[in-house]
Design goal:
The strands form 12 sheets. A 7-stranded antiparallel beta sheet has the order 2-13-12-11-6-7-10. Strands 33, 36, 37, 40, 41 and 42 form a 6-stranded mixed beta sheet that branches. Strands 44, 46, 47, 49, 50 and 51 form a 6-stranded mixed beta sheet that branches. Helices cover 14% and strands 36% of the residues. 41% of the residues are buried. By secondary structure, the chain is mainly beta. The longest helix is centred in the middle third of the chain and has 15 residues.
């Protein structure tokens, strides 16, 4: 594991109690540090496990679970939590058609009765004539449950997705036999679950929980982050999604390497690819977890290779480009615990999901005891993992925990062997407080290296160069009284450039030629709070091209001319002119019908808005019918005018002519016609309902043309004397035709 020194937390009393759990059983004489529980579960919807030790069934252990559809066999073992890691129970299970299994087992000393299968199939015989069934040495079953001294034990669950590995349970001669190291069911490669802890007394198992560890972990997780309301300092500090502080994840030997814009874009591209078609942050985080856990390998010599094993950008590129290097070959990449965590954080943040790094002590996945690397797990950082903020809570994610892949080497010069587990574990995703209390001891939730408490940084939205100059824009920061803009020609030399008062908005435009065309510059923005400068934003880059700079000194070029518009009286009309070249100014002009001269529209003129912007809005008054409008555009290279566009203002429709009555033979058809004047007309034919005394829309399927100027009606005797009219409307209003009568005879 990647190690570094960190502060010692003031939890001496709690840790003293916890330490008793790590000592041999003879020294754990009180239950002050643990409590009995009857049931515990671990995992997420994709894969989960449950253990029970009901108080009314002493000596009986229940284990159940739901696994992925690829899982062919599951192994459940109970191991002593001491340095010898003795196995006192082994059960092999084949999941049922719903990918579920469940069994109960009597752990009484000397018991040889096979476990009772509730769901799935417990290995209990030669299974259809396969030989050497005793190879699995099931306890109980072929081997009696041993008598054990009082002590702490861990339930370890592993699985396999390979049919050949599952078959190896029965055949010791197989390359994948139970006793072979290549069989993941033996727990040699990794575990799908190791979260359940038992205290066994007189061979009676009781599930236990560490309440002190749970409360301790909770206290560390939420230190200085109690108020997670959006917009608060805690929110800004702990929910960064801009990758600006990922430099602390890439730290080694005291150096920090901020993510560049190019690298951030690469993370975003990969994240988009991985989460394509996935809805919701939880599902996206799960997809990212699956990718990282399944594709990366843990380097058992990672402590001396941390320079290469912790940088998420280099490791992601190495994997996807099948690079060859000090920690990658054969299309595989080796990392360490904070390498796994860095990848989770970088890809989640690239999806807009807040994520953070945490560290602490880790319980060994092999010997099921507290690892004591620095002789004091209370202050020694032996493990790093991540948390992501989804739906108002921090979801604990440890992709290292879910990956069984290993790069096994004896020394740094050893090319090693790549050992890939055939199925990832979901035990490291959305870990529950109970489950994590048996495997992870929190020490610190490091704060961003670049975020100052109570003074959040703005989010820079864009660095645009289309004008021929650099234009920055950013989100407003609550409480800021101004902003500072920083610029540099490289990432390591960004210096203060200028200030922007809060009243001047949240943008800055370089109105000079300081930025040399064709050269890339880097920018950051910080908010001002009184005399205090807050945290800097992420770094953005901009490069004004030679063409953009040259165009800045040429007259504007129109890309889209304003178009003529028809609008109802009392409505509004918009005219837009799209142009480029330089820093543009706009002035809309008007001309009365029949006149030749144009005049500028005043910003205070009634009925107009946006007179100095690309889009002019005009109130469609009757007096403006036939008015013409154009835009006069300018920059430092000169002026140009758009073509003229006409405003047509229309009123409500007028009926010009119509059919008053129609005579038709029985079972024939009758046609009713209306003619109207006006713009954008809509038609709806109605009939008079004599029973209700109301006019209703005609909807009968026997009619045709109900929403046109011409309606055809079936001439049945029942419709003799029916009265019809047409409603003619547009956006300005509506009118009714006169009543027309249908005579059938």
């Amino acid at each position: 594991m990647f190690m570094r020194k960190t502060r010692t937390l003031a939890f001496a009393l709690i840790v003293a109690l916890l330490l008793s759990l790590c000592l041999p059983a003879a020294y754990a004489d009180s239950n002050e540090a643990y409590i009995y529980i009857e049931e515990a579960d671990a995992g997420c919807a994709e894969e989960n496990f449950t253990a029970r030790t009901p108080s009314d069934e002493p000596g009986t252990l229940y284990v159940s679970g739901h696994v992925t559809d690829s899982t062919k066999a599951v192994y459940v073992g109970v191991y002593s939590a001491d340095t010898e890691c003795k196995n006192i129970l082994r059960v092999f299970v084949f999941p049922d058609e719903n990918h579920e299994f469940a069994f109960s087992v009597d752990m009484a000393a000397g018991n040889k009765s096979f476990p009772t299968a509730i769901k799935g199939t417990v290995v209990a015989d030669e299974k259809g004539g396969r030989t050497n069934s005793r190879n699995c040495s099931t306890k109980p079953g072929y081997v009696a449950v041993p008598e054990v001294e009082r002590g702490f034990f861990r339930i370890l669950i592993s699985k396999t997705a390979e049919e050949s590995l599952a078959n190896g349970i029965y055949d010791e001669k197989s390359d994948y036999g139970w006793s072979k190291a290549t069989n993941p069911l033996g727990g040699r490669i990794g575990f799908a679950c190791q979260e359940f802890i038992l205290l066994v007394e007189d061979n009676v198992p009781r599930l236990i929980s560490y309440p002190d560890v749970i409360s301790h972990n909770a206290a560390v997780r939420f230190t200085d982050a109690d108020d997670m309301t959006p917009g608060t300092a805690a929110w800004a500090e702990y929910t960064d999604v801009y990758l600006r502080d990922i430099e602390n994840l890439m730290s080694h030997n005291g150096a920090h390497y901020p993510v560049t814009e190019e690298q951030a874009e690469y993370f975003a591209e990969v994240a988009d690819e991985l989460t394509q078609g996935v809805e919701g942050d939880y599902a996206k985080a799960l997809r990212i977890y699956e990718y990282v856990a399944d594709n990366f390998f843990y380097d058992n010599l990672g402590q001396v290779m941390s320079t290469y094993c912790c940088n998420p950008y280099l490791n992601l590129r190495a994997l996807r480009e099948e690079s060859i290097g000090v920690n990658c070959s054969e299309g595989k990449v080796a990392i360490v615990c904070n390498g796994y965590a860095s990848l989770i954080i970088a890809l989640c943040r690239a999806c807009g999901i807040p994520a953070r790094m945490v560290n602490g002590s880790h319980i060994s996945t092999v010997k099921a005891v507290w690892n004591n690397y620095a002789k004091d797990y209370r202050s020694a950082v032996t493990h790093w993992w991540s948390e992501v903020y989804i739906d108002g809570r921090w979801v604990i994610i440890d992709a290292n925990r879910g990956s069984g892949n290993n790069w096994i080497r004896s020394d740094p010069d050893d090319p090693g062997k790549w050992k890939k587990w055939d199925s990832i574990s979901y035990a490291g995703f959305d870990m529950k407080p109970y489950a994590i209390a048996g495997t992870h001891y929190y020490l610190e939730v490091p704060k961003s290296l670049s975020v100052k408490k109570n003074y959040p940084a703005p989010e820079v939205l864009a660095a645009d160069t289309a004008s021929g100059y650099v234009a920055l824009s950013w989100d407003e920061v609550t409480g800021a009284n101004g902003y500072c803009v920083y610029r540099g020609e490289d990432l390591g030399a960004i210096e203060y450039l200028t200030s922007v008062r809060a009243g001047d908005g949240t943008s800055w435009l370089s109105l000079d030629d300081i930025e040399e065309a064709g050269r890339t510059y880097y920018y950051r923005v910080a908010a001002k709070f009184g005399n205090v400068i807050g945290s800097m934003s992420k770094t953005v880059s901009a490069c004004v091209s030679e063409t953009e700079r040259e165009n800045a000194h040429r007259p504007p070029i129109l890309d889209a001319q304003p178009a003529s518009v028809s609008a109802p009286i009392g409505g509004s009309a918009d005219f837009t002119a799209a142009a480029r070249n330089g820093i543009l100014s706009y002035q809309w002009q008007a001309r009365d019908p029949g006149e030749k001269g144009w005049y500028d529209i005043s910003a205070s003129a009634s009925g107009y808005a946006g007179v100095d912007t690309p889009t002019l809005s005009v109130s469609a008054d009757a007096g403006r019918d036939g008015m013409q409008y154009r835009c006069r555009l300018g920059n430092e290279g000169g002026e140009t005018c758009s073509q003229a566009a006409v405003l047509t203002v229309y009123g409500t429709p007028d009926i010009l002519a119509q059919t008053l009555s129609v005579t038709a033979s029985p079972d024939g058809t009758a046609t009713f016609l209306v003619m109207a004047s006006g713009e954008s007309l809509h038609y709806q034919w109605q009939y008079f309902n004599t029973d209700k005394g109301t006019w209703n829309n005609v909807t009968n399927s026997g009619y045709s043309g109900l929403k046109t100027a011409t309606m055809t009606a079936p001439a049945t005797l029942s419709r003799n004397g029916m009265q019809y009219r047409c409603v003619v409307s547009n956006e300005a209003g509506s009118c009714f035709s006169s009543v027309a009568t249908l005579n059938v005879g």
